[in-house]
Design goal:
Helix 3 (22-53) packs parallel to helix 7, helix 3 (22-53) crosses helix 10 (207-237) and helix 6 (148-163) packs across helix 11. A 3-stranded mixed sheet has the order 1-2-3. It is built from 13 helices and 3 strands; from the N terminus they run H-H-H-H-E-H-E-E-H-H-H-H-H-H-H-H. The chain has helices at 3-10, 14-18, 22-53, 61-79, 95-112, 148-163, 168-177, 179-191, 194-203, 207-237, 239-273, 277-286, 310-329; strands at 90-91, 120-124, 136-139. The chain is mainly alpha-helical and 333 residues long. Helices cover 68% and strands 3% of the residues.
Length: 333
C-alpha cells in the first residue's frame, strides 16, 4: 500500500493539512526574536561605542542610521524579490525546466488545495540561507533529475515550509542589521584559516581524539574571532557585560535548535500527509550530506535554517507513515 493511498484515506484534505495555525505563527516569531535580538543588541552596543569614539554628536544616531539603512534594504529586497533574483542567487527556469516544474507544481497545488497561479517557480543556484517571500517556490537544478513523484515531494516540502509562517521581512531585516559583526568574524575565521587548520589536524588523529580536538579547536576559534567584538564593547559597557553580550546569541541558539528543527519536521509531516512520505524519504536518503555550517552564523538568524540530519528526518517520516498505516488498518467501529 503506497503512502499516497494511506494519505487519501486518513488526512482531512489539502486545505486542512496546509492551513497555517496560530501555534505556527507564534513559534516562528519566538524563534526569530530569540535568534536575532541578542545579536542585534551586540551590534547596537558596538555602533554606539563607535559613535562615541569617532566623536558623533549623538552617539545613538549611528545605530539609528544603520537601523534605517537595514529597513530600506529589506523593503527593497522583499518588495522587489522577483525583479532582483540575483540578490538571492535565483534565476528563472529555462523553457525546458519550466515545462517539467509546471506539471509537477500543478499536481502539488491540486493535492494541497492551493491556487497554483499564486506562486512562482525559481531555480536556486546557491544555498545562501536567504529566505524569499512565501509566494516564491525555489528548487535546485539537481531536483529536475529526480522522478516526477520525487520532484513533487520536493515542491510539497517547499510549500509546507511557507505555509507555517517564516516572518520573511524580519528575517531579511535582522540579517542586514546584524551583518557587520557577522561579516567581520566570518572574515577573521576565513582569513586566519582556522577551519582548514582544525580540519587538517583532526584528520590526522584517531577518531576519539579527533572529536575531542575538534570540539576544543571550535571553542578556541570562536573565542579568538570574538575577541575584537568583546574588546570593542568593553570600552562602552565593561568587560563582564561585553563577554555576556557576546555569549548570549550562541547560548540562545543552542537552546533554540530543537524548536527550529520542529519546522523541518512539520514540513516533512505535511508532505507525508499529502501522500509523499516514501518519495521524500527517498530524496533524503540519496541526498548528499550538506557541508557543516560554521558556528559563527549563530550570530544572525540562520538558525531558521534547520540543521536536522537526513537520518532524523527519515526516521520521523517512517513514524508518521506507520501512524497513518495503523489508522488505515484500525477496525471499523
Amino acid at each position: 500500500m503506497t503512502s499516497e493511498v494511506i494519505a487519501k484515506a486518513t488526512y482531512p484534505g489539502g486545505t486542512a493539512v496546509t492551513r497555517r495555525s496560530g501555534t505556527d505563527r507564534v513559534r516562528a516569531w519566538i524563534v526569530l526574536l530569540l535568534c536575532a535580538l541578542p545579536s542585534a543588541g551586540l551590534i547596537t552596543v558596538l555602533l554606539y561605542g563607535l559613535g562615541r569614539t569617532i566623536g558623533v554628536g549623538v552617539p545613538g544616531m549611528l545605530p539609528v542610521a544603520w537601523f534605517l539603512v537595514s529597513a530600506v534594504w529589506s523593503v527593497v529586497c522583499f518588495r522587489g524579490a522577483q525583479r532582483l533574483p540575483r540578490v538571492f542567487r535565483l534565476r528563472q527556469p529555462t523553457a525546458e525546466e519550466a515545462g517539467v516544474l509546471q506539471v509537477a507544481w500543478q499536481n502539488v497545488a491540486r493535492k494541497a488545495d492551493v491556487p497554483a497561479a499564486d506562486y512562482t517557480l525559481w531555480m536556486q543556484e546557491a544555498d545562501r540561507r536567504f529566505v524569499v517571500p512565501d509566494r516564491m517556490i525555489t528548487v535546485f537544478p539537481e531536483s529536475l533529475r529526480l522522478s516526477p513523484r520525487e520532484l513533487e515531494a520536493v515542491l510539497v516540502h517547499q510549500l509546507a515550509q511557507r505555509v507555517q509562517g517564516r516572518a520573511v521581512f524580519w528575517q531579511l531585516f535582522f540579517r542586514q542589521y546584524n551583518l557587520p559583526v557577522v561579516w567581520i568574524e566570518h572574515a577573521l575565521m576565513s582569513g586566519l584559516g582556522l577551519v582548514a587548520v582544525g580540519e587538517a589536524i583532526a584528520r590526522r588523529l584517531p577518531e576519539r581524539s579527533s572529536r575531542v580536538f575538534s570540539l576544543g579547536w571550535t571553542v578556541f576559534s570562536r573565542i579568538l574571532v570574538a575577541f575584537p567584538a568583546v574588546a570593542t564593547a568593553t570600552v562602552t559597557i565593561g568587560l563582564a557585560p561585553a563577554v555576556l553580550l557576546r555569549l548570549v546569541p550562541e547560548a540562545g541558539a543552542l537552546a533554540l535548535r530543537p524548536i527550529a528543527d520542529r519546522f523541518e519536521y512539520r514540513s516533512d509531516r505535511i508532505a507525508v500527509d499529502l501522500g509523499y512520505g516514501a518519495e521524500l524519504g527517498g530524496v533524503l536518503q540519496h541526498a548528499p550530506v550538506p557541508p557543516t555550517q560554521t558556528p559563527l552564523t549563530l550570530l544572525s538568524v540562520s538558525l531558521f535554517s534547520s540543521k536536522a540530519t537526513p537520518d532524523n528526518r527519515i526516521r520521523r517520516i517512517r513514524d508518521r507513515l506507520d501512524e497513518l498505516a495503523r489508522r488505515w488498518n484500525s477496525p471499523m467501529r
